[in-house]
């Protein structure tokens, strides 16, 4: 029996065992398999491991998407977690491109995936409070939001959770060094049903502001002179 002789349910089950690239390659072989590839039911879960994956055409965004994970650990992506005042021009340019890629992608998610239940972002140093705010507003069924080492996330995200996270049951903000204990306490008070975890977050040293940067530079020069 040829694969195209299988009914649609069997083909969807077969496709479900393949990664995004394998699905795309198989879909190129015939029109029937392309139709299966384009079935929204196939795309309830998506995992990404590099910025470039967000630009590929080997997946679909749609109302069927329930679980989304973007977890980056490469050396190039780690640059985005460095404080802005420590980056050279090349690193800043790289981070700007990553930020635009992520922002555009999350905007698409907001517009196309209203039934999203779970969002996990790890190592995404370019994700902003505004991105998370838009997700919370446009994905009212979101139950799990897990943020790890997202250095731009601040108490504004925590405030957005209290205002728009009515369905949220799990919130992780581990290693998000720019949130505060006050922000965490606000979430605990206003959203007692949310399971909140903030490992190594509010106790970490936040990003230095420009005036603090200047003070650090002066102190470093004094040490060199000594």
From TrEMBL:
InterPro entries: F-box-like_dom_sf, F-box_dom, F-box_LRR-repeat, Leu-rich_rpt_Cys-con_subtyp, LRR_dom_sf
Pfam families: F-box-like
Keywords of the record: Ubl conjugation pathway
SMART domains: LRR_CC
Domain F-box: 9-46
GO CC terms, sorted: cytoplasm
Record-linked PANTHER family: MITOCHONDRIAL ATP SYNTHASE COUPLING FACTOR B
Protein name per its UniProtKB record: FXL22 protein
The encoding gene: Fbxl22
């Amino acid at each position: 029996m040829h694969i195209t002789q299988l009914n649609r349910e069997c083909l969807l089950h077969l496709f479900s065992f393949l990664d995004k690239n394998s699905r795309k390659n198989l879909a190129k072989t015939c029109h029937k398999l392309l139709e299966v590839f384009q079935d929204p039911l196939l795309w309830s879960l998506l995992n990404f491991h590099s910025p470039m994956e967000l630009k590929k055409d080997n997946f679909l965004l749609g109302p069927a998407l329930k679980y989304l994970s973007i977890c980056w650990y490469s050396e190039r992506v780690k640059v985005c977690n460095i404080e802005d005042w420590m980056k050279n021009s090349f690193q800043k340019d790289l981070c700007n491109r990553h930020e635009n890629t992520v922002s555009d992608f999350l905007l698409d998610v907001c517009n196309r995936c209203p039934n999203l239940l779970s969002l996990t972002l790890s190592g995404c140093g370019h994700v902003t409070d505004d991105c998370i705010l838009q997700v919370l507003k446009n994905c009212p069924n979101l139950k799990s939001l897990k943020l790890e080492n997202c250095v731009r996330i601040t108490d504004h995200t925590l405030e957005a959770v209290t205002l728009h996270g009515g369905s949220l049951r799990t919130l992780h903000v581990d290693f998000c060094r720019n949130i505060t204990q006050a922000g965490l306490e606000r979430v605990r008070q206003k959203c007692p049903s949310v399971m909140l975890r903030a490992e190594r977050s509010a106790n970490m040293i936040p990003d230095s502001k420009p005036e603090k940067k200047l003070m650090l530079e002066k102190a470093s020069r004094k040490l060199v002179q000594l």
